[in-house]
Amino acid sequence: MAYVGTPLDTTNAFQSLAGKRFNGDGSTTDFTLDSAPNSTLDIEVFVGNVRQDPNSAYTVSGTTLAFTGAPPSGTNNIYVVHQAKAVGTISIPDDTISSQTDIGAAIVDADLFLIDDGGGGTIRKTAASRLSTYISPSTATDTFTINGSTPTLTIGDAGAEDTKIVFDGNAQDYHIGLDDSSDDLVIGLGSTLGTTSYLNIDEAGKLSTGGETAPDVDAGGLCLDQNATDDVIFSAKSSDVAHGVTTRAETDTYYQIQKTNGPDGGGQVYHFRENAENAMYYHGVGVGSLGTTKSVNESGLISLRAHLKGGGTDTDGTITSNGNMLTIHAHNTTRFIFDAEGDLHADSSSTTFDTYDDAQLARAFDLSHGRGVIKSKFDKFVAYNHEKLADLQLVGREKDGTPNHFINVTGMQRLHNGAIWQQYEKHNQLLEAVYDLAKEAVGEEKANAILDKHEVKRLQ
Questions:
Q1: Exposure of 425 by Cβ count < 10 A (0-12 exposed, 13-18 middle, 19+ buried)?
Q2: Residue 73 and residue 25: Cα distance in Å, rounded?
Q3: Separation of alpha carbons 148 and 140, rounded Å
Q4: Which residues, 6+ apart, have CB-to-CB distance to 331 below 8 Å?
Q5: Residue 259 and residue 268 in contact, taking contact as beta carbons nearer than 8 Å
């Protein structure tokens, strides 16, 4: 044990000098000392009570004292006195320091206090001593540093006890600790372990927040528990984002997840982007080829699935007949509904095309893309083209205004409905014209008989 600071009280304490005697025999020149001096000046050598010259009478090498000439015979007629005392280590037996007085009050003023037993020293607080009384950081720094090839700081013991490190703040305390009952590592609020838990890591490596002690994730997974609060549970930010939609989220938030409705649960996902386009992307990246079979058991690279609870699970519940599985909204107005029977329902307020020849518009679309179209002698009577289709929003346009072949599906449905009705009208007009000719040619009675024969009914 060593320290830097005011030394221990050494009043009236002296260091004894070491010595050694030898018998000369008139021929031996080398003698062995008990300890090795650093030089010939560190010892005094006497032969027959005459002090020898350290510069010429002898030399030292380790513990060997070598005379340049053999000392004469005699009993204990050679003796050596060590003048330089060795610098050693003061060792304190284990468990012998129990109070401040055992070490000395001066240690409190030390800049460095080091305990080292050569193999993993231990600093320990017992009921009889307060470690904070003896160890205090210097006024120059509040940093405690552990150095070494594999530095390790162990807190606690093998007993059934919670252990923790408490960070004492100005207004609030925080702690990092080990809950001995669950072996969870806990980061929380307050000086007492478990007062308010922010993050738990269990022995399986599962991470959870909000005091959740039974996370339903696998090892390495993250379970977020916001308890009974209803606001955002997850948000992703970027310092270069400033979308300005601060009624929903902070302006630098580009993604967030929150509860839909109080105790009912449900989830809402928001994507924010300064540009009105491409605010949300979902990518499905697979390896290999996709299935091409069209059946009720097929799945695509991206799948959307709706389940209703049945028998306590989400896999055996039948979707309500005609139930709305998926809706698409324009702000708060529903525009598309996909139901359980696979029907698509669309709310469209676009006008019809009654002022046009709907059959010719439909033919104009076929002629505009030309793929697989068989030419007809009636095509020369089609008065519309690709540009007109774009004007009527039956097809789309590129950003430069060029018409493309994106089809307005609901617009085409209205066009086809109009074409059918126009053909129905023309059919009845033709029927009336043929009926009038028949009456002129064969009379009304025979003309009616012809209609009855062919089960043709006129509109009355």
A1: exposed
A2: 4
A3: 23
A4: none
A5: yes
Quick check: 78 and 67 in contact, CB under 8 A?
Answer: no
- In this prediction, residue 111 carries a pLDDT of 35
Locate tokens 């010259």: which residue? 53
Yes or no: say if 234 and 210 are a contact pair by the CB < 8 Å rule.
Answer: no
The tens digit of pLDDT for each residue in 359-418 reads 999 999 999 988 889 999 999 999 999 999 999 999 999 999 999 999 999 999 999 999
Per-residue tokens: 93: 């037996």
Query: In this model, does residue 315 exceed pLDDT 80?
Result: no
Tokens of 44: 């005094």
What is the arrangement of strands in the sheet containing 232-237, beginning at the earlier edge strand? 232-237, 253-261, 265-271
| Per-residue pLDDT reduced to its tens digit, 140-163 | 556 667 777 788 777 776 566 788
Residue 310 has pLDDT above 90, yes or no: no
Q: How far apart, in whole angstroms, are the C-alpha atoms of residue 99 and residue 121?
A: 19
pLDDT at 112: 37
Helix (H) or strand (E) holding 64: strand 64-67
Q: Which two tokens stand for residue 125?
A: 């607080």
pTM: 0.62
Strand arrangement, sheet containing 19-24? 19-24, 74-82, 43-47, 50-51
